[in-house]
Amino acid sequence: MQAAEPGKLVVISGPSGVGKSTLVAQVLERFNSQLKPSISATTREPRPGERDGVDYHFLGDAEFERRRAKGDFLECIEVFSRGHWYGTLWSEVGPSLEAGKWVLLEIDVDGAQTVLDKVDEVIMIFIRPNSLEELERRLRSRGTENEEAIRRRLSVAQRELELGSQYEYQVVNETAEVAVDEICQILQDRGLFND
Ligand code: 5GP
């Protein structure tokens, strides 16, 4: 039997609050059996409705550190200065790629850089808001962060928008439907089959 051609890695980044998760969920639905999400590990607390092993692997600080020291992460990073770790586990990526599936990573710009350094072919897509004002409005309407956290996320966002301009593909999330179509078209152009 012939081995399946290995899958490819797709990285989607964008500032917090730009609507990445909604777009990613719809893209995953369209490519259901071909494209698998990498479930990141994090030390932050789950938000209401988030489930362990589904939205994230929620790890305690000590467990995260233990796995980091063991080399379990393809990349990991302390995303916001005051605090929480996020990372992509090799176990979320390697087996799927070997089985010929594509894997989608929703990670920040610094983590994405590490992935680019370690993996040969990565499809890099950056999601942009219409404007910084629109991003602030979205972050506030989500109602999950306090004022200080919103301020911190906005200043991180400014840096991310600058670094994101180096990504191969730029998608503006003005209308979710259009943005999802654009992302799917990019993936098809790069060789991913639709179900
Ligand atoms: P949130 O706390 O809103 O779920 O995510 C905050 C940020 O962490 C997002 O911008 C997201 O892209 C980033 N992030 C989530 N998982 C990972 C990961 O595994 N690695 C890295 N580097 N960033 C991540």
In short:
Helix content is 43%, strand content 20%. By secondary structure, it is an alpha/beta fold.
What does this structure look like?
Helix 1 (20-30) crosses helix 7 and helix 5 packs antiparallel against helix 6. A hairpin with a 6-residue loop joins strand 5 and strand 6. The radius of gyration is 16 Å and the shape is globular. It has helices at 20-30, 61-70, 90-98, 109-118, 132-142, 147-164, 176-189; strands at residues 9-13, 35-37, 41-42, 57-58, 73-78, 85-89, 102-106, 122-128, 169-172. The chain has a single domain (9-189), classed as Rossmann fold (3-Layer(aba) Sandwich). The two termini are 23 Å apart. With 195 residues, it is of the alpha/beta class. The mean pLDDT is 92. The strands form 2 sheets. It has a 5-stranded parallel β-sheet with strand order 2-7-1-8-9, sandwiched between helices. Strands 4-3-6-5 form a 4-stranded mixed β-sheet, sandwiched between helices. It contains 7 helices and 9 strands, in the order E-H-E-E-E-H-E-E-H-E-H-E-H-H-E-H. The site of guanosine-5'-monophosphate (5GP) has 14 residues, from strand 5 and strand 6.
